[in-house]
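User: quick one, sequence for these tokens?
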């Protein structure tokens, strides 16, 4: 079974994505038909380079380089501010009552005047001694809901994507953070057009067919609670208990932990390399639906990174059915890893009574 999965990973790259860990870089915007034929229908990412004359002809690309402009324009706006101890939200961390296991931790979220949010983001940069990292974002159409005063600075949609997909974006989100903000491996059920306005975004990308390399497991959900009085965080498990399926792999684990991580997650470390993508100011990344992505960022000279992304609804078609079937397959016992209490999976758990598929699995 494992050898068949490994063949799949290689074939996807050879037939569609290319054998080098790079994605297409376009120097002119695609027509709607080109986008539909060569990228959307093939579930294939690309970068629209800043050298393209019409990539981002937005007022935002010049106006948003001025913090004063942002503060003046959003002087009466209240935004969602996410706080974490390290900059890693929606990620795995030590269980609050059992350090030998993990939980899925979400950020502390508070409403704040935009000026306070910018101050907090700048105050939590690398050279400060603040006990938190602040990130202004909210994945609920926040650009149109919370930052409406800036709406005229950007296009309301990406025209060639809108025409190819046949509908306007479901959500448009704004992201303002610093170097410490990091997003762990995950996937989204959206066609994502991700435009960087200032700073840079650093993506690691893996196609949906590499799902087994992510070691997705169920983790108990928890949330950080921040006290302004003590300036300390408390990590609280949700009550009643809720479990979240999440990717177990941390591609940037500390050097002292790397050997252990490689032993725990051999399919990730021994398989094809992720696609490494740097999206610079003025560039757009097309991130197809269900692609796994890990995101870091580099700030501009103000210690800020600002991006806008457009989420278009994906088609829940045969591609989605194929992915769900693939995800239901379980790798051989030799590659399953006991996490969170020692649970492991065997071939007997994969299919309920299908003897033909069971024989196939027993041969791996």
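Assistant:
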């Amino acid at each position: 079974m494992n050898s068949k999965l490994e063949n799949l990973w290689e074939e996807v790259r050879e037939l569609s994505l290319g054998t080098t860990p790079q994605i297409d870089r376009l120097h002119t915007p695609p027509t709607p038909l080109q986008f539909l034929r060569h990228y959307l229908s093939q579930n294939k990412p690309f970068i629209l380079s800043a050298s393209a004359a019409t990539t981002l002809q937005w007022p935002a690309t010049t106006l948003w380089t001025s913090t004063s402009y942002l503060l003046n324009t959003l002087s009466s706006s209240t935004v969602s501010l996410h706080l974490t101890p390290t900059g890693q939200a929606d990620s795995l961390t030590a269980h609050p009552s059992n350090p030998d296991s993990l939980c899925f931790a979400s950020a502390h979220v508070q409403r704040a005047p935009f000026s306070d949010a910018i101050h907090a983001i700048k105050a939590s940069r690398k050279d400060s001694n603040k006990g938190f990292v602040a990130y202004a974002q909210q994945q609920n159409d926040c650009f149109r809901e919370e930052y409406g005063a800036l709406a005229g600075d950007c296009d309301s949609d990406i025209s060639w994507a809108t025409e190819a997909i046949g509908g306007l974006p479901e959500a448009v989100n704004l992201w303002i953070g610093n170097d410490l903000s990091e997003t762990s491996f995950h996937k989204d059920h959206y066609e994502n057009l991700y435009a960087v306005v200032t700073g840079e975004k650093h993506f690691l990308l893996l196609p949906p067919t590499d799902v087994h390399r992510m070691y997705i497991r169920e983790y108990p959900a928890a949330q950080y609670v921040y006290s302004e009085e003590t300036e300390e965080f408390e990590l609280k498990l949700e009550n009643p208990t809720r479990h979240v399926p999440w990717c177990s792999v941390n591609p940037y684990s500390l050097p002292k932990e790397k050997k252990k991580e490689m032993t725990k997650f051999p399919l990730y470390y021994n398989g094809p390399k992720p696609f490494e993508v740097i999206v610079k100011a003025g560039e757009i990344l097309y991130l197809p639906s269900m692609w796994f992505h890990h995101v870091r960022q580099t700030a501009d000279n103000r210690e800020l990174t600002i991006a806008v992304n457009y989420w278009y609804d994906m088609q829940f078609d045969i591609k989605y059915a194929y992915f769900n079937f693939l995800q239901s397959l379980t790798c051989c016992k030799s590659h399953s890893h006991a996490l969170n209490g020692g649970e492991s999976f065997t071939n007997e758990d994969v299919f309920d009574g299908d003897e033909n598929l069971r024989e196939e699995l027993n041969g791996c």
